Amino acid sequence: MNKNKWLSKLYYDLGKQKTNEMKVQNSFINNEGDKIFYKREYALDVIGTNKKYSHRTLLKNEIVLDLDPEPDMKKTLKEVIEDIKNKLKYTNFRYVIYFTGSRGYHIHIYDNYMFKLNLSDRIKYRHQVCSNLSKFYDKMICAENHMIAMEFTEHWKTGKIKDIINQRGVV
Fold first, then answer.
1. What is the spatial distance between Cα 10 and Cα 20, in angstroms, rounded to a whole number?
2. Which pTM was predicted?
3. Cα-based angle 34, 144, 161 (whole degrees, multiple of 5)
4. Are 24 and 150 in contact (CB under 8 A)?
5. 41-42 vs 35-37, strand pairing mode
6. At what angle do helices 119-133 and 77-88 cross, to 10 degrees?
7. pLDDT tens digits, residue range 54-75?
């Protein structure tokens, strides 16, 4: 899928236009090895343009498990993903599992119940859902203003595309 079409789907269909604060940002590593981060822009301002962006903030109704290999994992990362997929079978969550293009995986879960929650309760709810699915997740991603790699886009460090490996009810 084209990343611009996906950003539009995220904002209008999945986010139900209730995420006016959603922002995007372009980041890359230049030829000298410096990390370059451009100013964040509102997603609504870049939809339908040719502006470059590699990261975005979360939707209000989105939970993201950012899973990377951990030294204390007793299973492989793929086995951890399979365990999470098995747990998700018993929920009503819509979700997409992506290979990030780097070392790990992102599991994006969409739950419209979160629209009823205030910011503090959404953060608590994200932690609750994530910890019920796996102890191996990046707790920083529970904040809505945290940037996450944009789907269907080259990873800013590796150049590999963040692409779907599994989904239910989203794409």
1. 12
2. 0.90
3. 50
4. yes
5. unpaired
6. 110
7. 999 999 999 999 998 777 777 8
In this predicted structure, what is the pLDDT of residue 110? 96
Domain extent at residue 163: 3-168
The token pair that represents 110 in the structure block: 């969409």
Q: What are the angstrom distances between the C-alpha of 53 and each of 44, 46, 57, 77, 159? A: 13, 9, 12, 28, 13
- Provide the strand spans (E) within 82-139: 94-99, 105-110
In 3D space, the residue among 95, 83, 102 whose CA is nearest the CA of residue 164 turns out to be 95
pLDDT in tens, 77-130: 889 999 999 999 999 999 999 999 888 899 999 999 999 999 999 999 999 999
- Token pair 């859902």 is found at 129
Question: Can you give the CATH number for the domain in which 53 is found?
Answer: 3.90.920.10
**From CA 29, how far away is CA 31, in angstroms rounded?**
7
- In one letter, which amino acid is 20? N
Give the chain's mean pLDDT: 90
Total domain count, the chain? 1
Separation CA 133–CA 36 (nearest Å): 34
